[in-house]
Amino acid sequence: MAKYAQVIVDVPAMQTNHPxxxxxxxxxxxxxxxxxxxxxxxGNGNRKIQGFVVGLSDExxxxxxxxxxxxxxxLKPVLNDEALQLADWLVTETFAFKIxxxxxxxxxxxxxxxxxxxxxxxxxxxxxxxxxxxxxxNELKYNSQKFSSRxxxxxxxxxxxxxxxxxxxxxxxxxPKEVWAFKAETSIEALKKIKADLRKTAIKQxxxxxxxxxxxxxEFIQSTVTREFxxxxxxxKKAAEKGWLKRFKITKYxxxxxxxxxxRSFPKKLTPDQRKVTDSVNKSIDEKLSQTFLLEGVxxxxxxxxxxxxxxxxLELGKTALMLVPEISLTPQxxxxxxxxxxxxxxxLHSALSVGERxxxxxxxEDGDAKIVIGARSAIxxxxxxxxxxxxxxxxxxxxxxxxxxxxxxxxxxxxxxKRHKCPVxxxxxxPSLESRARAQxxxxxxxxxxxxxxxxxxxEVKLIDMRSAIQSAPNLDISSELAREIEKRLARHEQIxxxxxxxxxxxxxxxRQCGEVIKCPNCDISLTYHKDTNSLKCHYCGHEEFVPSVxxxxxxxxLRCFGTGTQKVEKELIELFPSARxxxxxxxxxxxxxxxxxxxxxxSDGKADILLGTQMIAKGLDFPNVxxxxxxxxxxxxxxxxxxxxxxxxxxxxxxxxxxxxxxKDGKVIIQTFNPxxxxxxxxxxxxxxxFFKKEMYIRHRGGYPPYFYTIQITASHKNESVAAKKMxxxxxxxxxHISSKAMILGPTPxxxxxxxxxYYYQLVIKYKNEPELExxxxxxxxxxxxxxxxxxxxxIDRNPINFM
Length: 806
What we know:
CATH architecture of the largest domain: 3-Layer(aba) Sandwich
Oligomer: single chain
Number of domains: 7
CATH superfamily of the largest domain: P-loop containing nucleotide triphosphate hydrolases
Strand content: 15-25%
Largest sheet: 7 strands, parallel
Number of strands: 33
Number of helices: 24
Shape: globular
Structural class: alpha/beta
Helix content: 25-40%
Strand order of the largest sheet: 14-15-13-16-17-12-18
CATH class of the largest domain: Alpha Beta
């Protein structure tokens, strides 16, 4: 039994990556394990904070100076050995503090205020002392400080034997979901006698008695029975009052999407190309190889069915599987497909779940009740054991990169876990990132392809509209005459249309036509976006919101006008052009409420809308058989960004959204409206020719010295005083020159593209390099040293291989 614990504490101090040693009180020595959370006292006062136990030992040189652990928060470790090793890797890989790396692996519910209860699973426990603790009840509040050492040891033993369950009840943020349940209270003979004595007109009561007789020993959730057997809650309650049945409350796992009963699906016959892909991956699963595959498949080539059958193979071998998707909007369709194939073995994890839902799903995974996890970026940390395969769909998406500490990329974590579990990683995309495609070409990844649509249908016809000339005859500024005619045709044939504009709001900005003043955010160096539904101006960076002024704040003129366009404005224009059309708008404003993604997509899938208008969230992964026309209203939005990946993003977005058309038996057409029809990214997207785009873009990257030919690290300093941020960046630049070779390059320091956000000024520099071992050591030390200045408001971010340089 260890006497001392090494604890990483939750405090923003310089020693965050260094564990502190605490004494283990004797009563905790039998139960404390590495990976548990504890409460400890920190600093000179009585400040109580949480920490993670990362080590145990029997000896300590300065015992008299040590404080003791106050409380143990868990009955079993919340972080296993794999998670602790992964945290150590994240610390180095992402220039992060260890406490942040440990916390990112847990659901918010385990970081909230909560209380634990222990519940007897079986009706009888032999240990008399434990029986006395429960005092005839079957559930008890867990308080380790009030239990004796022997009681704690016995409770832990019963937990391991699964005779006691541990429940977490989150305070404030979410309560455990409790529902009414019931079961028959009296014998079958008594119920039959009651039924015989009822008057003939008591038909409903007789039906309920028959139900109780047929299902005498079973326990039922009340809402399920009332919904499926046409009883009411009052019927059940009255039956309980008469003593026919017993009502009680039970804790139920929350269903994140509340998917109703689904029809079981079965594996489809694979094409020869699909079979070749599944055989390659399955061979790696069988041979326990940590191999990375790049699956490059055109839109509609049947990648999802390939994923399903690969996962089924892993499950047949007794393994688990992890499936990542880039957008929350994709999860409803994917989850339904996986539920139809695998039933309750599927768990869902992403940031839009409530605290309680996420905790419930995490517990299902940890307890082994769920074998397949589907989720967005953070699901990569799901506590799965014995992983057989990890799949990342749309691997090129920037949303797989975490923007806050720890700044990990889910792809890198997936590859790390694949080595740990000796399993393959499948990176799937119709438009792979240049980095992944280059690695596949070099043989670092194994390259697999699906170059034909599953139904043998051709890719949709794609037409470019040059808005420089088309705008003269367009019915409005956003929709060309040709696009309007094509929409009219589809509406007449009762076919569906998808329109994408990658800008939400009503207008990009409001400007005074008298003096040229643009109304900007008071906290950020960016214009405010006009939202017509609330008649307000909003900042999409800091959240500032204000009413639309009636006069110009500069010259007091009343000549204020909206410029630019957004999804709200286009929706209004569509209603004017096509008054009978049913339109759904999908953007951040319409999908902010829980379940809104699923609700809107289901409406469109069920044919209750003709036009789906949205931002880039509708561009990928969605499969609607009746969609025959896709329109891109401004293809130049991403092209104009001051970033070296702007062309790549534009090509990927246009190719992905084009793939939504003509996915079933009907021919599809795509119309792309652009002011830059000659740009190579738009031209190659029109041809849907990834290979030609790849060659062109790689040539440009090579000449400019950008990834994948170089690694990059971005360093950003921010402060409310601009000169402080700028001075720090120039200091760092000077120090860097002493730690890098002449082969490395430094870009900057320069102000960020948006120099001020939320009253913080941002300065940055970028390092481009191939192999600089001294650079790593310098940056690790810089992270620790800069903490002294952070107390005065300076913030420093070190981002390895950033997604953009803006």
